[in-house]
Amino acid sequence: MPDGETKTARTDAKFGQGFLTDIWYFAALAADLKPGKLARHEILGEPVLLGRSNAGQLIALRDICPHRAAPLSAGRFHREASGAETVECPYHGWRFGADGACAAIPSLVGDQAMDVGRIRVRRYPVAESQGLVFVWISSDPRGQGEPTEPPPVFPGVVGGAPKLVDRMDFDAHVDHAVVGLMDPAHGPYVHQQWWWRSAKSQHEKAKRFEPREAGFAMVRHEPSKNSRAYAILGGEPLTEITFRIPGLRWEHVTVGRRQVLSLTCLTPVNQTKTRITQIVWSDHPAFLLLKPFIAAGARAFLRQDGEMVNLQNQGLKYDPALLWVDDADRQAKWYQQLKREWTASRREGRPFVNPVEPATLRWRS
Hints:
The protein is α+β, with helices and mostly antiparallel strands. It has helices spanning 174-182, 187-190, 286-289, 291-316, 330-348; strands at residues 23-29, 37-43, 46-52, 58-62, 76-79, 85-88, 95-96, 102-104, 126-129, 132-137, 164-170, 204-212, 215-221, 238-244, 248-255, 258-270, 273-282, 359-364.
């Protein structure tokens, strides 16, 4: 495979390999992108410059100058005579616009004719929604593909800025990170805190699931009686947990008129690393009184999952066959079906058809 080519699910659909394309990926919090600043990210194994011009325009380009391969993110914004802002490479000052076209090569002299506009770096469509920044990754390696749909919108983004933000890198392909976080049966073993649950509190559960846009949801229900953390919200909480490809999982809790939205964004850094960003919004007063304790609990959960991923890697390095069982692993099966259908629909140029059927799943946890 040539250097720089992104391995996609179109060419390799094996679980734990490749990535979905022609889809939005969460890249950053909007608050992280300050005016006049550039930042280097890696998404799907590709270097991506993310920045916000002094005028507030978002920009996303391949973070490699085509001249000598210096990272453009190490440069700065430059204001052209036209007023447009370009990204200036730190090595030789080559400048590129938000469309990826080269705007100037300062080393050229007057009689050296060259159409610099024909030189381009890959441009990534980028959008800001609900305080989140998404990058559209096209299957076209030249970056010509445009978004066919707006970025995701989530319910329950209330109370202004997020109450909690936590980040962690899992040393795992995004497939393993996704199914690990959506797995309903690991809680009593991986997350054994007195304020949550224990292996002794296991009992049979039955939850109803429905297809949702590019994913599925555990429809709104009362939290399980052995999930003690919900008690801090008081009242009679109801929760709904939704998953959407390529790696977005959110829990929307309502307590009367109060809301809590816990959004987990999984962004593939490369084949062996996935960035997990946990974001919580709420207008519930518990987040004013108990925020330090809630934040500590959320961090503990995420790090326990990360530790289990590292433990799992000891077995995965031998590339074993994985045994999936119903109903506890049905969500993992749906995830694979969703990926296959997304890839097929894009390849065949037809609308996506959600393969998930309504079902009631039963398991012990």
